[in-house]
Specification:
alpha/beta; two-stranded antiparallel sheet; 5 helices; disordered C terminus
């Protein structure tokens, strides 16, 4: 079995939402970026925690998960956000640009249907701040039918913490596969 995917959101996870007085966490540094389709003289201010890059690299180096961006930043996640955190280029789920006014038009996170199709029957851990109870039910149902699925939900005003990644590694470490590159195996090789 291949390592599970680690689906990573950005807003509310790597870029926390400001608190009530508009202040980002003191651990985060401001960056001005120009997302696709935006004019260079109209950048977007974002706040990133420089510790997140090394934390995520520690997880990536374990080879227990395969990281994938799953964010409305789409390809900008790998070209704008990743480099600011010294992350290697990561693939991304090519989410559509829906015309919606809520993150939960059907009572669950709008990305879920697209992620579900993209994942097929591959185990996954998904870090996003915007899940509802219906998303947690979906994850439990996938797990019950033999497709291990874990949802990790950071506080959107705090963002990703070391304990979230520890939970990811503990969960992935109990799945029946050998990480890529160990014992002469390659990705997709099941442990004997």
């Amino acid at each position: 079995m291949r390592p599970p995917y680690l689906l990573l959101d950005i807003d509310g996870v790597l870029i926390p939402f400001p608190d009530d007085d508009g202040t980002p966490p003191p651990t985060h540094a401001r960056h001005d970026v120009v997302p696709t389709g935006r004019e260079p003289d109209d950048p977007v201010a974002i706040w990133l925690n420089p510790a997140h890059g090394p934390m995520l690299m520690d997880v990536i180096r374990t080879r227990l998960v395969t990281p994938i961006w799953c964010t409305s930043w789409r390809q900008d996640a790998t070209t704008l956000i990743g480099p600011l955190l010294d992350l290697p280029p990561l693939p991304y789920v090519d989410l559509p640009r829906p015309q919606i006014t809520t993150s939960h038009p059907h009572g669950y996170l709008w990305k879920r249907d697209h992620a579900d199709v993209w994942l097929e029957d591959t185990p996954a851990v998904w870090i996003d701040d915007d899940f509802t109870s219906l998303d947690h039910t979906w994850a439990a149902e996938r797990t019950a039918r033999g497709v291990a699925t874990l949802l990790v939900q950071p506080d959107p005003h705090v963002g990703l913490l070391a304990e979230h990644l520890a939970e990811v590694l503990a969960w992935a470490g109990h799945l029946p596969f050998v990480p890529a590159g160990e014992s002469g195996t390659s990705p997709g090789t099941e442990a004997a």
